Amino acid sequence: MPHINAAAALQICVLLSAFPAQYFISQLYGTDSTQRIQRTERLIIASWSSFTKSYLSLDAWADHLKLWLSKTRTCLNVGLLILHFRNWYAGEENPKIVNNGVEIHSYFAESTHVRSPKPEYIQFSVGQVIVHKRFGYSGVIVGWDVKAQAPEEWLQHKYPPAKQDLKDTPHYRILINKANGFGKSTAYIPEEEITIIMGLEVVHHPDMKAYFSGYDGSKYIMQPWLKKIYPHD
Known about the structure:
alpha+beta, five-stranded antiparallel beta sheet, 6 helices, elongated, Hemimethylated_DNA-bd_sf, Hemimethylated_DNA-bd_dom
């Protein structure tokens, strides 16, 4: 039995496919040879034109590249956020996640830059239990900024012209005690609105274990990643 190599097999397949192709063309375009030739030429020209527009055009490849980059960037950002929150709730070090060189969490005392040295005018520390002077809810401090760090729209809404000076005072991020039945779960408030409570250990909030590992009798003990951000608290 003679040996058939790959080239010979390919030639046989092309010859065999020619018969059904010819039959298809004759059924589709009629039996007149001139018409078949003309319509086949138009079909080939149209197919080639479509191919060149899709794969041989610089504009088409530019569009493909933009789409690919967009999908890649979206996947990267989603992956970073998933990694961030997975480590967050596992109690591991809070990674410094950036997006085009800018921290994702830079507002409301969520920036990961190290607060060192700690200014003397910052009265309170992360882990201390507080009560809001006006609203009466209790909570625990999980972060602070030397002055309000928030979107400009939020600051304008929070501080009308008569309270503009408060923007430049220390602000604290609070996990609000769920036992108070207060509507919000977190707050970002100026120093003058809170006071420290001593001896109140139990603060109910679903994120407590992400920030703290226990209670030492006066305040909550920070997780290692949080202690690195606030080494002097």
